[in-house]
Design a protein that fits this description.
Chain A is built from 16 helices and ten strands. Chain A is of the alpha+beta class. Chain C has seven helices and 13 strands. In chain C, about 50% of the residues are buried. The chains are: A alpha+beta, B alpha+beta, C alpha+beta.
């Protein structure tokens, strides 16, 4: 093998410019692929995480039917203690309980229909990014106080500010009047007008009082530090449900199917583009190998007439290409990694990214991370395709007739 | 002149001396061009469709509202019908079409269900040219005149309400005095839209009917204006904003839907980058091919130089080879692109990821669009940069010393 | 997301009382002549109108109980009511304790609600009016627009029959073209002494959707009226809402001031 390896290597360098140019094509594509794929994977993760971070989170426990019908009676009994059970048993998770209802919010001047959500001030900031979006005043602090936080647009429409009172009227779980007076403790700006216009949070106990919920709630929201494990967590949480319970556990894909699809659509188009790059590189390699084989026809003829079998000759050519491919792979991946690290320090953004980022709840600058799989995925495929490209010329050698070969000019 | 003729013939014959290599290179260029254009066509098509949909559903390139309307789309935030200077501008040539609308939130009920939606009173004649509804009617008819008291709803809403053509549904909303305003309407038409959310959120009737129901005299809530091209909306916006004055809010479509506005710019940049990347990947192979071609013919070139051919002509010849190769590749690539885009212009169905596409704001059917500017840009870049890339080997060829070249082994 | 659909379904509490108010104008019997001429040619519209007028009287005060029944729970509420003419009603909840003191005032077609818990009077906006009331099977429409049955429909006598020696008229009421009514048609069974025995609601395909039935008839405040009636959704027979009249006085003097916002907030009785 050694001789073959050395021969192959030396053959490569008989035509340094050609070898470098072909390797250059590979390196170029590899850098692009390594960078783009890493960027993409990082972005997807962030997109998912950030979109989910606002409300949905990774896993939820709900009463059956609630997801589609959203009826106040479809609630989880003894919700907070169930949440505590999950917390105790799976302590890498962050768990929060929520009650949700619809009500009329009135100020002195106007009334609007809104969604009221009862939350646990201790736990909600661990599962949702909304508490961090308070622009004026403060987030909720006590489990049982008559305070609320409202969106900026709602505050404007109702013409209220911090410290002003709002009346909430709705109907409770048992159909009774639900009424309460609350004070505005904080105003948030999520950047999403739909939310800013119609969403109000209050402490869970207050919510349960006003809406006659007893100890019930509608969502137990669970966040995991590792997105990949969501399905796993779902199974574990399900195991913790009380025996015979009808409660359902959903993962984020079931709660927000459009998110996964958006990613799939994006991924499909990205891979189309990568595919084209890879094919072009393969063409380049094919060209080079073909040329290098053809120009050595005489030499091959001689060598074969001296006893080298076509098989081994073929393998030699193949090895040359493999070495070249490995070179391209290593250099390309290394440079790609360097690029990722450099961009990771300085952040990546392009004009117009802000608005797109807002839509998907992402920061305006991305800091790609270096991870093995996304890094080498593209380059590996390039390597594989160069090997495939090398097959044709290598196989042709099988049919080489030594005498004719030697006669070639 | 004769020189050019000779050079061309020589270049052409040289190309085909090693036809396998040339064919592969041409194939690579073709695939590259095809990929450039196909991908671009897809992306362009998607974004253009998105913008067109948005412009038809907003509707318009520019809109005018009451100053408070966007925050609080309430019936009291109305504006008078255009008059005076504004009316003049609207009737001028800069404006292709304009329409006024009544637009308020309302609740629609059928025998079994109710939903909230946006209730819109339109003037069918002017609305027809501007918004999507008239064109998307799938059952029944569009409205006939301003006073038409029928109602048009979307297919999805009709299904949700369990109602249909010819049945009555009840619209309930309020007038400026906060009194209930409600009325029964017969469904005279049902529309379909590529974006399902549109089907659920809008109901249309004649503007006079709406004004009467709401007791707002001849006030309206929205004036929508279209110009010739959504890309030229800024000029139109300036014109209209000046004429409308500071008492109302005038906005162009890309601010009404800022996400789309940036998508458009981002797409332009993206197309350029994509073309460049492909070209670079191709260029490695291109240069390689030329270098090889020159290298093989060192003795020949030396001979020609010794016989008196000017180095400049050698340069020209190499460039001519490159140019021909590129041109053939371009021709085939362009043809391929046209051949694949044309049949698909009926739309590519990606409804598997329909919900994800809606998250991007795009519909579930992609219509590739080959835009003239993109085609020109792609071809130009390949030719210009291609020739540029071939300068180096061409230059080196012309620099050969005849004696050395002839005696080269 | 949750938002848009549910804005339409938020405001049930208020609407419950509206139902009550509507009920107060639903026809009930009286000893007064039913409007039939001797030859038996009934004017259906007149009959319906009279039935409504009959139950409301010129004015009334009364006590009622409402029971909401579902497969897995049941809830009951007691209330006091005052009416004057066909356009004014006031209702106050007396039991259970949790809801005590809540009140609803209706004047013309506007509705205000008062809750002692928040000590505020709020006018109900249109977006909240389209709801089922208090989780019951009565919608706002049934309740707040009781008079509509007379003017917003055309009426036709279908048939006349006899029950316990009394004539019973079957009347079909079809909403006017532009009426704010979702029903295809309604069918009323009215007895000659102006008791509404049954009111059926049909969708526009002719399918029966819900039905109000008189279960008990008795004497109250000098009149024969329906003392117990039930609204049922045909698709869900295990879900119904029942109204029971505990006491009723007719044509008593009711002060105009009763029907003001001030009184809604601060009852003087």
């Amino acid at each position: 093998m050694n001789i073959a390896l050395r021969l192959a290597w030396r053959n490569l360098w008989r035509q340094p410019r050609r070898t470098w140019l072909t390797t250059g094509a590979m390196v170029f594509s590899n850098i692009i692929l390594a960078f783009m794929v890493s960027l993409q994977f990082g972005m997807y993760d962030m997109m998912i995480d950030n979109t989910l971070a606002v409300f949905t989170s990774h896993v939820q426990i709900q009463a059956p039917g609630y997801k589609d019908e959203k009826k106040i009676r479809q609630s989880i009994p003894a919700a907070q203690s169930l949440a505590e059970t999950v917390r105790d048993n799976l302590d890498e998770l962050r768990v929060a309980t929520r009650g949700i209802a619809f009500a009329l919010a009135s100020s002195e001047e106007r009334s609007f229909g809104i969604q009221v959500v009862g939350i646990e001030p201790d736990h909600e900031p661990e599962v949702s990014s909304l508490p961090g979006l308070i622009k004026e005043g403060f987030y909720l602090a006590e489990l049982e106080s008559n305070e609320v936080i409202i969106g900026q647009v709602l505050a404007r429409n109702l013409k209220v500010g911090l410290g002003d009172e709002l009346t909430l009227l709705g109907s409770g779980r048992d159909g009774s009047f639900a009424a309460g007076i609350v004070t505005v403790r904080g105003i948030f700006d999520s950047g999403m007008p739909d939310i800013d216009r119609s969403y109000v949070q209050m402490p869970l106990k207050t919510f349960q009082d006003i809406f006659a919920m007893g100890d019930q709630a509608h969502e137990i929201v669970i966040r995991t530090p590792d997105l990949e494990k969501a399905a796993d967590i779902k199974a574990k949480v399900r195991a913790l449900l009380p025996a015979g319970s009808e409660l359902v556990v959903y993962d984020w894909d079931e709660l927000q199917p459009s998110l996964k699809q958006a990613i799939q659509a994006d991924m499909a188009s990205a891979w189309f583009m990568y595919g084209v790059l890879i094919i072009l590189v393969a063409f380049s390699v094919l060209n080079t190998v073909l040329m290098s084989v053809l120009e050595r026809t005489r030499e091959f003829g001689i060598v074969m007439s001296l006893g080298l079998t076509p098989g081994r000759l073929g393998r030699l050519v193949f090895l040359e290409t493999a070495l070249m491919g490995a070179l391209g792979f290593l250099i390309g991946t290394a440079l790609g990694a360097a690029l990722i690290v450099w961009v990771g320090e300085n952040g990546f953004s392009y004009p117009g990214m802000d608005e797109m980022a807002e839509r998907f709840n992402m920061p305006a600058r991305i800091y790609p991370q270096l991870e093995l799989m996304p890094l080498v995925l593209g380059p590996l495929i390039v390597f594989a395709s160069t090997l495939v490209a090398a097959l044709y010329p290598a196989l042709r050698l099988h049919w080489l007739q030594p005498v004719q070969a030697m006669r070639a000019a | 002149m004769r020189v050019i003729g000779i050079v061309s013939r020589l270049a052409w014959r040289n190309l085909w001396r090693n036809h396998r290599r040339t064919v592969i290179m041409i194939a690579a260029v073709s695939v590259g061009i095809w990929a450039m254009m196909f991908m671009t066509a897809l992306m362009r098509g998607m974004v253009n469709e998105m913008v067109r949909d948005s412009v038809k559903s907003l509707p318009g390139h520019v809109q005018i509202h009451h100053l408070d309307y966007r925050d609080d789309p309430n019936v009291i935030n109305s504006i008078p019908e255009p008059s005076g200077e504004l009316l003049d501008v609207l009737n001028s040539d800069a404006v292709v079409g304009w329409t006024s609308r009544v637009r308020v939130p309302a609740v629609v009920s059928s025998e079994r269900e109710s939903r909230s939606l946006t209730f819109i009173g339109v003037d069918p004649d002017s609305e027809r040219n501007i918004s999507f509804v008239a064109a998307d009617i799938v059952e029944g008819r569009f409205l006939e005149d301003r006073a038409d008291s029928g109602i048009i709803i979307g297919r999805k809403l009709a299904d949700t309400l369990d109602t249909g053509l010819g049945k009555r549904i009840v619209i309930m909303t309020q007038d400026p005095e906060n009194e209930i305003a409600d009325r029964g309407f017969r469904v005279v038409g049902i529309f379909d839209s590529s974006l399902q959310s549109l089907e659920e959120s809008f109901a249309f009737t004649g503007i006079a009917t709406a004004q009467e129901l709401l007791k707002i005299g001849d006030e309206v809530h929205e004036i929508a204006v279209t110009g010739t091209d959504f890309r030229k909306a800024e000029a139109l916006y300036d014109l209209i904003a000046a004429a409308a004055g500071p008492s109302v809010s005038t906005l162009p479509w890309y601010e009404l839907d800022s996400y789309l506005g940036t998508m458009l710019t981002v797409m332009d940049g993206f197309v350029l980058v994509w073309i460049l990347v492909i070209f670079l990947a191709l260029s490695f192979g291109l240069v390689n091919t030329l270098v090889m071609a020159v290298f093989e013919r060192v003795r020949e070139i030396g001979l020609m130089l010794a016989l008196g051919m000017k180095p400049g002509v050698i340069l020209g010849q190499v460039i001519a080879e490159s140019l021909m190769l590129l041109l053939i590749g371009l021709l085939i690539g362009n043809l391929l692109a046209w051949a694949t885009v044309e049949p698909l212009s009926g739309g590519i169905d990606v409804s598997i990821v329909a919900q994800g596409m809606e998250m991007f704001g795009a519909s579930a059917i992609l219509y590739p669009e080959l835009e003239r500017n993109d085609v020109i840009m792609a071809n130009l870049i390949v030719i210009v940069l291609g020739v540029f890339a071939s300068l180096s080997p061409a230059w080196r060829a012309s620099r050969y010393q005849p004696i050395e070249a002839i005696t080269k082994v | 997301m949750y938002r848009s659909m549910k804005l339409a379904s938020a405001f049930r509490a208020l609407n419950g009382l509206i139902f009550l108010l509507a009920l107060l104008s639903v026809p009930a019997a009286s000893a007064v002549d039913s409007g039939a001429s001797d030859s038996g040619a009934i004017d259906p519209r007149e009959l319906v109108k009279k039935a409504i007028d009959h139950w409301r009287g010129v004015s009334s005060t009364g006590e009622m109980t409402m029971i909401i029944h579902r497969p897995d729970w049941e809830r009951s509420m007691s209330m006091q009511s005052w009416t004057q003419g066909s356009k004014r009603s006031l209702v106050r909840v007396t039991a259970p304790q949790k809801d005590r003191g809540n009140g609803t005032l209706m004047v013309d077609n506007s509705m205000w609600n008062y809750s002692p818990k928040v000590n505020r009077v709020i006018k109900v906006p249109s977006s909240m009016m389209g709801q089922s009331w208090m989780g019951s099977d009565f919608s706002n429409k049934d309740v707040s627009r009781s008079d509509d049955i007379v003017d917003q429909y055309t009426h036709r006598l279908l048939e006349t029959s006899e029950m316990d020696g009394k004539q019973v008229y079957l009347i079909e009421s079809i909403p006017l073209e532009e009426a704010a009514v979702v029903w295809g048609r309604e069918v009323l069974r009215i007895r000659e002494d102006l008791i509404l025995l049954e009111q059926s609601y049909f969708d526009q395909d002719g399918e029966l959707v819900k039905k109000l039935e008189a279960l008990e008839i008795g004497q109250m405040g000098g009149r024969v009226i329906v003392t117990r009636q039930r609204m049922t959704k045909i698709d869900e027979p295990q879900e119904w809402t029942e109204m029971q009249v505990k006491s009723m006085n007719y044509d008593v003097a009711v002060d105009d001031n009763m029907f003001t916002l001030a009184n809604l907030r601060n009852p003087r009785n």
